[in-house]
Here is the input.
Amino acid sequence: MEVKWRFLEKERCWAWENVPYCQRPEVPREQCMHIFVPEVFLKENGTISDQRHKNGFTAATVPVIFENGLGGYRESEPFYPEDPKSGGREFLEAGFVYVSCGCRGRSSLNAEGVRCGKSPLSLVDLKAGIRFLKHLAGKIPGDMEKIVSVGISAGGAMSSLLGVTGNSPLYERELEGMGAVCSETDHIFAAQCYCPILDLDHADLAYEWMFQGKFHYTGMPFVGFGAGELTPYTKALSREMAAAYPEYFNGLKLRDPDTGEILQIGKKREGSACAYLRKKLEESAAKYLNRMEQEQGRNAVETYLSDKTSWLSWEAGNVRITSLDRMLDTYHKRLKKCPAFDDLDLIQAENQEFGTPQQDKMHFDTFLAPIMEKLAQEYPEESKRYQKGYQEIQKDEGLADRKYRINPLNFIGTGEKGDLAPRFRIRVGSMDADTSLMMTMILALKLAETGKVLADYEIVWEEGHGRADDPGEVIRWIHEICGTTCFSLPVFYKDYL
Ligand code: DHB
Here is the structure.
């Protein structure tokens, strides 16, 4: 393949664009990547230079950032650094090689108009991208043993999956079919996961447990519904689902990484796991408020807190969430209807993600049919309307497989084959109500329990669903894990070192 670099003046970097990463792409515009390389690592004639970047790396040692753009499980073409969805500018400025990798998604269509991007094909495409990059090792700048995956939301789930399913045989059939570079591996060095939407097997129950008693939702206009109130039927569903969650959660037998204590929840929003989550929220708020005090003074903090006194206290640098319940009423508000993911009317992204080429949208949550059965007498009309759809999927093996292969939890501490990335960084916004905050916490704790990886997990205060982060920290983390020096930290962070 001919390598073709074009110089981008604005970013002072070289770009190789629309590079196909497999031999038989079904959707060539999606199954390709853009590769961006800081100016210093290439000569004018396109060969690798032996110059050193001011941050210390050479073309042979520079980490490679591998960002996917999967949002709402929708297919994405690779993007440019100036795209608001891209983290490319920051990564390139820091001197890293930046790859934006496209992939198929839930509504991808091939040239014949056939649906071709259902689960797990987004992940398979990204794995093909990793293999392709490794195949380029030595031919383009970048240490392909230092690939750091980055993704947000559904893309954050993909990032965690790239981190836990390295070289898993479960995706080989599809990789071979598409003509990926099967002689290469697809394990990665690190995964940055922003607000990952994961464990769709239990996401609906987790959501109702988290938002139990909160029946007003703020809505998702781009999915097709605005703010509203749950109906009597969905309120009843919510109560049953919330009550069913602890059995699953407590069965995980997660432990507090500091004390070794088993983390449990009760039917209400209580228990040691809930206390652990509260502690993570308090640490997050403390970081935010203490920084605000340092940068803007005490008055700014007092003003910020003035409408939060019923649930948040701050004294001498210590933060307490005095009422999680009030926090959920006024700050971290319910976003979605019930069920939150396997929507009654099949309007959520996940309904389409778990469809097939023949059936675009499907139900997938197998906990719901028995709960609906329980409510059938009291709600005959809704039961008649909805129950059948959920019953039909109970024994669908194809569906079970599609769910299995995009749930990272199936690969962590389970004996399922998959090479783990040694480093993870998980960030979620304190206002992110796209999924239960329990989900990211579970991911982090399960990873830590393997004893094989470092999982850096924080909630980021005052951030919602997206690239929830503190300025400059992701760059510092990449330097830390790669053992390189970071000379270009924002001033504020230097104060903390
Ligand atoms: C995304 C958001 C959601 O609420 C969801 O259910 C799935 C994906 C997203 O932003 O990618």
About this structure: The pocket of 3,4-dihydroxybenzoic acid is lined by residues 71-73, 153-154, 197, 341, 348-350, 434 (CB under 6 Å). The first strand starts at residue 6 and ends at 8. The first helix runs from residue 88 to 93. Residues 489-497 have pLDDT under 50 and may be disordered.
